[in-house]
Design a protein that fits this description.
Blueprint: E1 8-12, H1 17-27, E2 31-37, E3 51-52, E4 55-56, H2 57-62, E5 67-71, H3 76-87, E6 91-94, H4 100-103, H5 108-114, E7 119-124, H6 139-145, H7 167-190, E8 194-199, H8 200-205, H9 209-218, E9 235-239, E10 244-248, H10 252-262, H11 276-281, H12 283-294, H13 299-309, E11 313-315, H14 319-324, H15 326-330, E12 334-339, E13 343-348, H16 372-378, H17 383-392, E14 395-396
Parallel strand pairs: 1-2, 1-6, 2-5, 6-7, 7-8
Antiparallel strand pairs: 3-4, 5-14, 9-10, 10-11, 12-13
Helix pairs in contact: 1-7, 10-13
């Protein structure tokens, strides 16, 4: 029984941002029905490799905990089906290009007339208003235009670099889920639903809080700094004798602890490094001095010393190492779900822990049309109607 148990969600979304929103709500206990297009389904089903025995690993990651149906939204019967599902739903999620839902007769305005309490979450590339509202949205484009690529990478004069993860897709999904929950509180208080509108562009912008603070205060946009921090030092990665380590001595107390662990007390008297302001003004020199020291020992030895000395530090793990890390395991961030065809499949766990209403990752991603018959029957379509829909190809019913 997650915190959203009893809430009914219709996900008319594909690829990543919309499905990420639906996944968050499903993890928290909402009954999320994913409506896939006929033919083909969610395009992420074709995002292979990698695959597990013919099933897209990417699709399975983004769509666990959901039931799935396949509907031809261009057919009259398909529209009838989806409207009936939405009539009793609490939430609709969609991330199609502007105008698509209107052309299908599934706009917020038309659906809210039938279901005034409906919360209608729209996730798009640039939002539903403004001069770019018609543009398609992709993570790469949003990272470029939000400023993220200007502050990511090794520094001025080097090639632009995007964050390795599709950070605007994922964050837009999380912002969408946050907006849905806020709108649900409003509905509890008033009985009225509303539209929730967010975008990949805005998801990128919210990751520039520090850099925007600098630009708004100084008028000068900050640039990429590698792993360094724009406001505090030392706060970055340093090479060791056998790899790399991150050190977060971002305040004066931790700076002094770091000097103890490095056995470099003489740096306390160096006027270039006396306080954070001085260290930021001499960041290149600070990096050179500390690098000459950190290269003297291997990563494990530095980690041991920093742990004893109370210095914030960490190894740089790859994704597989992160999966195996004991803290990842203790927080249940890698878990297994049961897929209808494959059996147990590993996936990422839910990132928020609740003391009274724990979230649960318990259902594998649906096969194409897996729950079509089940969901339609729950919405009072007769067996005869369902079979006729299948014959007409208005829906696809999986195994």
């Amino acid at each position: 029984m997650g915190p959203l148990h009893g809430i009914r969600v219709i996900e008319l979304a594909h690829i990543m941002a919309g499905p990420a929103c639906g996944m968050m709500l499903a993890d928290m206990g909402a009954d999320v029905v994913k409506v896939e297009k006929v033919p083909g389904g969610d395009d992420t089903r074709l995002s292979v490799p990698p695959e597990i025995d013919g099933e897209s690993a990417a699709f399975m990651m983004m769509n666990r905990n959901k039931r799935g149906i396949a509907v031809d939204l261009k057919s009259d019967a398909g529209k009838k089906i989806v409207r009936r599902l939405i009539d009793s739903a609490d939430v609709v999620i969609e991330n199609y290009r502007k105008g698509t839902m209107q052309r299908l007769g599934l706009s917020y305005e038309s659906l809210a007339q039938r279901n005034p309490g409906l919360i209608y979450c729209e996730i798009s590339g640039f939002g539903r208003t403004g001069p770019y509202a018609q543009r398609a949205g992709f993570d790469l484009i949003a990272q470029a235009m939000s400023g993220l690529m200007s502050i990511t990478g090794e520094g001025p004069g080097r090639a632009p670099v995007k964050c390795g993860a599709p950070i605007t897709d994922i964050t837009a999904g999380i912002l969408g889920a946050m907006g849905v929950l806020a709108a649900y509180v409003h509905r509890v208080q008033t009985g009225r639903g509303q539209r929730v509108d967010t975008s990949l562009f805005e998801a990128g912008i919210v990751h520039t809080f520090w850099q925007s603070a600098i630009a708004l205060a100084t008028g000068a946009p900050p640039t990429a700094m590698g792993s360094a921090h724009p406001l505090n030092a030392p706060y970055q990665a340093f090479p060791t004798a056998d790899g790399w380590i991150t050190i977060g001595a971002a305040n004066q107390a931790n700076w002094l602890k770091l000097l103890d662990a490095l056995e470099a007390a003489e740096l306390q008297q160096d006027s270039r490094f006396t306080d954070n302001d001085a260290r930021m003004q001499h960041l290149d020199e600070l990096e050179q001095v500390l690098t000459s020291i950190t290269r003297e020992r291997d990563t494990a030895e530095w980690l041991r010393r920093f742990e004893v000395g109370g210095v914030p530090a960490a190894p740089i793990l790859d994704v597989a190492e992160m999966h195996a890390d004991p803290q990842t395991q203790a927080r249940e961030m890698i878990t297994a779900v049961n897929h209808q065809r494959l059996g147990a499949v590993q996936t990422i766990g839910h990132p928020v822990k609740y003391s009274a209403t724990p979230a649960q990752v318990s259902r594998g991603a649906p096969q194409y049309g897996e729950h079509t018959r089940e969901v339609l029957a729950q919405h009072d379509f007769s067996t005869r109607e369902i079979e006729q829909f299948i014959v007409e190809r208005a829906v696809v019913a999986g195994p």
